[in-house]
């Protein structure tokens, strides 16, 4: 299932002079610098708070296309190299308790500083925690990377209890799946300003 955001590119630009420490870490990672997990960006539990950014590597355009074909995907839209990251962020359980979750952020390389329209790839049923897109080099990561290679800011939530998130996965729980996706968008805006719309502002 894919949920593409349709906000106009101008609306996706970050406010001026608000580059965050997490953004610097993501940018440093894209240029090969070492990135360490960052501290919580709030003293309270605010949904969408970015906790850490971990680089997952880079692929050039040819490598993106080759991996897409390996996963049975059409590779004709691959135009850019891609840098991928695992984000850890704050969210909520189905009953409203604070927790954390992980997700994938994939960004095109070499597109300058123009705003990037975001797209969220929501994976289907996974048998193992380690099959989540921010952990495994499987079809779900390949889909997101292919979107990034086409010039989008691509995100793929692992969902609660999968990937690097704690606890059990609330299978078939639509509410937590939606909130984990929205909170990943909020976290991504801190990691890469311009990748998520202003409407995805943090909420309590």
From TrEMBL:
Residues 1-16, 29-41 have a biased composition (Low complexity). Gene3D superfamilies: alpha/beta hydrolase. Residues 1-49 are annotated as: Disordered. SUPFAM superfamilies: alpha/beta-Hydrolases. It comes from the Bacteria. This is Uncharacterized protein. It comes from Streptomyces angustmyceticus.
């Amino acid at each position: 299932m894919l949920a593409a955001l349709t906000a106009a590119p101008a609306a996706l630009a970050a406010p001026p002079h608000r580059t965050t420490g997490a953004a610097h870490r993501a940018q440093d990672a894209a240029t090969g610098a070492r990135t360490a997990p960052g501290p919580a960006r709030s003293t309270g539990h605010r949904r969408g708070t970015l906790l850490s950014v971990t680089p997952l590597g880079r692929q050039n355009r040819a490598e993106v296309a080759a991996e897409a074909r390996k996963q049975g995907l059409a590779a004709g839209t691959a135009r850019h190299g891609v840098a991928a990251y695992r984000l850890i962020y704050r969210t909520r359980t189905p009953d409203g308790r604070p927790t954390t979750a992980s997700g994938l952020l994939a960004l095109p390389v070499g597109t300058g500083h123009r705003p990037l329209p975001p797209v969220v790839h929501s994976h289907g049923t996974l048998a193992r925690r380690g099959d989540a897109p921010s952990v495994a080099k499987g079809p779900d990561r390949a889909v997101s990377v292919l979107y990034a290679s086409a010039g989008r800011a691509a995100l793929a939530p692992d969902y609660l209890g999968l990937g690097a998130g704690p606890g059990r996965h609330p299978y078939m729980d639509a509410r937590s799946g939606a909130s984990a996706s929205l909170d990943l968008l909020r976290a991504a805006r801190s990691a890469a300003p311009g990748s998520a719309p202003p409407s995805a502002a943090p909420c309590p």
